[in-house]
Structures are given as structure tokens and as C-alpha cells.
Amino acid sequence: MLQKFHQRELSELTRWWKDLDFANKYPYARDRLVECYFWILGVYFEPKYSRARKMMTKVIQMASFFDDTFDAYATFDELVTFTDAIERWDASAIDSIPPYMRSIYQALLDIYSEMEQVLSKECKLDRLYYAKYEMKKLVRAYFKEAQWLDAGYTPKYEEHMENAIVSSGYLMAATTCLVGMEEFISEETFEWMINEPLIVRASALIARSMDDIVGHEVEQERGHVASIIECYMKDYGASKQEAYIKFQKEITNAWKDINKEFFRSTETEVPMFVLERVLNFTRVIDTLYKEEDGYTNAKGSDV
């Protein structure tokens, strides 16, 4: 019964995605709608979260397209105008960006406009502010990496890690996944989330570290900006294997921080169902990136 419910959801999302025709319009980008849905299903599978799942699947797929556009296709000058358009977040900005980017930009505006229509009926429009805030922050992080690449600059490890925590997409995802939930979530909880508390930063560190460990070599072959692996090796004269050991330890310590924060949950006013979403996102990441980049290489994985 539950499986049929999820199949209907995915069918609805697939129709939305096919209508956009982005797989044909943007062959450089990863076409991963099903994988995005699987990811979000791991965050909340219950029928009552259907609305939230559909919102988040669309947002995650768009973020993935942005990531690939920044990493693999657009020129730096094009990214300057696109980033400015995201900051403005207005339909009037569409004429300022290259024609091929306009469909992506309009799709983003449409997704958040749909969210606005739903949330306005429930007096929850404050949530939309936080969703946009985190998406803008994510795009700024993508742009920072594009600036480094354009300048031929390899950042210091600490500088890169601070930006990489954001560009992992985890902070945006963890905040936005709350937007479509029907439970009461206070503005204080959203403020707590965007201020990057320990449990959220620890989860983002796991996401970034696991992604870079399994994917940095392929990304370097494709001419991407240096990952945290390369930055650490350069700054500390470490071998690749030493860097792997370093970040595996960081991942282990981050899991300890997450567990510690759960034990402290009674000392905070953050609802347990919010903390569970943070944890579940991290569990999915642990599954996707355990042995390889199970998102990028989905066709060759068991996911």
C-alpha cells in the first residue's frame, strides 16, 4: 500500500520533469529525478509528508542542475549574471541572463511560487523566506568556487572547508525539507537551523567529506576547482591516503557530535521531528557515498 503511494508520487514528479524537458535541453547536467526522490524518501517516507517530499524533490533536482551548470558548462561571465539574478529573485531579472539559462531560472521561480501559494493558505509564509535564504547562500557558494577556478586560485584548506560546508547543499536541504511539513515549526527553529548549529554543521561536514573522498579524482580530471582533499594535501604536505585517513576521522567525529546533540535534545526547544530530519539526511548521504558517488554514478550502483 505504501509502495503504491510512493509510486504515484514519483509518477507525478516524473510528469512534471518530462514537461520541463530539461534532460534534452541541458544534456551536460545530471538527470537524476528518481535519485532525488529516493534521497528525500529516506528523509521522510510517511504518507503525511507527501507534500514536503514533492517540494523537496523538485528543489534538490534544481540545485543539482545549478551545481552542474556552475561546474561543467557556463562561462564565468554567465555565472556572474545568473548569480545576480538568483540574488534578485524576480521574474524581471530573466532578461539579464543568457537565453539558455532562462528556463532553469523560471523553473526555480515557479517551484517557490507553488510553495508560496500552498503556505499562504496556512499562514506559513515565513518559511519561504528561509527556503530562499538558503538557496541563495548555496548559489553564492557555487559562485565562490567558480571565482577560484576562473582565477586559477587554490584556496587554503580552512577557507575552502568553510565554503564547502555550504556548497555541499546540505544546509539548504536540511532547512528546506522543513518548509512543506504540516507540523508547527517556530521561526526560532528556522533561525536555529540557518545559524548552523553543531548537529547541522557536523552533518554537512559528513556530506562534503564523503562526497569529496569518492569523487575528487574524477572532478579534477574534468577541470573542477580543487576539493578539500587537494587543499588539505597541498597545505599540509599530505599524501592522498593520509588525507583520506584525516577525513575518515573527521566523519567519525562528526557522527559523535550528532549523537551527542541527540542526547542533549531535551535541553533545547528544537522538536525531535526536526532533529530526525537532520539525522535522516545524513543517513541517506552515508548510503549514497559509502563506496562511490552513488548520485552521479547512479546507473552503476545498487541504489
Number of separate structural domains: 1
Class by alpha and beta content: mainly alpha
The whole-number mean of residue pLDDT values reads 88
CATH class category:
Mainly Alpha
Note the gap between the termini. 22 Å
Helical percentage = over 70%
Shape: globular
N-to-C SSE string, H for helix and E for strand: HHHHHHHHHHHHHH
> What is the second-level CATH architecture?
Orthogonal Bundle
Give a summary of the structure in a few sentences.
The chain is 72% helix and 0% strand. The protein is mainly alpha-helical and 303 residues long.
Describe it:
The protein contains 14 helices and no strands. Helices cover 72% and strands 0% of the residues. The radius of gyration is 19 Å and the shape is globular. Mean pLDDT is 88; it is low at 292-298. The chain has helices spanning 2-20, 22-25, 33-43, 50-72, 76-88, 99-120, 126-151, 157-167, 170-176, 187-194, 198-221, 228-236, 240-263, 272-288. It has a single domain, classed as Farnesyl Diphosphate Synthase (Orthogonal Bundle). The protein is mainly alpha-helical and 303 residues long. Helix 3 (33-43) packs across helix 4.
